[in-house]
Design brief:
The protein has about 300 residues and is mainly α. It is built from 13 helices and 5 strands. Strand 2 and strand 3 form a beta hairpin. Helix 7 runs antiparallel to helix 8. The longest helix is centred in the C-terminal third of the chain and has 21 residues. It is elongated. The two termini are about 50 Å apart.
Length: about 300
């Protein structure tokens, strides 16, 4: 026995019934579906079978159309077809829903839904947590802009992804293209942890960033300086130990996650570490100083990555 869908798909004056694959009946209006979808406009414009025809199922004097979509997909699909005063657009934050809605949008020629799906795949909340799944869905659907955007967001995650449910949507060569892109981005940003012209160009001289030199400028600093590695000399002056540690650790992190987000997260960890040591000179100012520096470096990392092309 079929179940009846919830409002607004249970209207007593509806003129057609759509039955989902799992047996839920949606009583809907042909006009709304015809206006939203060329597919339904054509379907409902075809000559109707005469009353009592054996090949047309009827219920309550309404034609029943069997749909291949399940009730959850059909409910979301119909909400996009209905006027907003009668049904709110469904949320598409669940990527499983996005995939099924994209299939329905293309099957029933609903350009509006496809645009909504593209917006869902570009949702920062979704991209921030599940970029690899967004990539697989977008690539499978041949959504070029969304594929590139998702690939960019995968850079904040490790090079080798964990198993994910949509992996079957892409080919081995497409996954290899993503991994190659990731590796090329890693290579592109490495110079930023070795060549500090981005820093010296920004601050111009050491007087603009005395905090980088610890006890050289502030006698109260207990953090010390690294005097055994000329790589971290700035304006011929050795730099404070915790900043050198930050740059060394960041260099390794960027090999696996070449993203501006990686720069900022590493800076947050450094801020907590320095504050925990209670240095009179550094603990009070480290947050503001490292936030400025990490934002600058994150921008440089993202600029370097932006020059790398994703090639299939």
């Amino acid at each position: 026995m079929a179940n009846c869908a919830s409002s607004p798909f249970d209207h007593a004056k509806a003129d057609v019934i759509l039955r989902s694959a799992d047996g839920v009946e949606f009583r809907v209006f042909k006009l709304f579906l015809s206006l939203a979808s060329p597919f339904f406009e054509t379907l409902f414009g075809l000559p109707q079978a005469p009353d009592g025809a054996a090949d047309q199922e009827m219920k309550d004097d309404l034609a029943v159309i069997a749909m291949s979509e399940d009730s959850k997909t059909l409910d979301s699909f119909l909400r996009f077809c209905y006027p907003p005063t009668l049904a709110d657009d469904p949320s598409l934050e669940n990527l499983t829903d996005v995939l099924s809605m994209l299939a329905a949008a293309r099957k029933y020629s609903l350009d509006l839904i496809e645009k909504k799906v593209c917006q869902a795949l570009a949702n920062p909340k979704v991209l921030g947590t599940e970029p690899i799944r967004c990539f697989a869905i977008a690539r499978n659907a041949r959504l070029t802009h969304e594929t590139i955007t998702a690939a960019r967001h995968t850079l904040s995650q490790p090079l080798i992804p964990a198993q994910f449910s949509e992996i079957g949507l892409i080919t081995a060569s497409e996954l290899l293209a993503l991994l190659t892109y990731h590796k090329n981005c890693s290579v592109a940003v490495q110079h930023l942890t070795k060549d500090f012209r981005w820093l010296t160009d920004h601050y111009v001289n050491s007087n603009s960033c005395t905090w980088l030199f610890g006890p050289y400028y502030k006698d109260s600093c207990r953090c010390g300086r690294v005097t055994t590695n000329n790589r971290f000399l700035l304006w011929d002056t050795y730099t404070v130990t915790w900043w050198v540690t930050y740059m060394q650790e960041l260099s390794e992190l960027l090999k696996d996650r070449p993203s501006g987000d990686t720069v900022r997260m590493a800076a947050d960890n450094t801020i907590q570490t320095v504050r925990g040591k209670g240095c009179p000179a550094c603990s009070g100012s480290v947050k503001g100083n490292m936030t400025e520096l990490s934002n600058l470096l994150a921008l440089k990392v993202d600029e370097a990555v932006a020059a790398i092309e994703l090639v299939f």
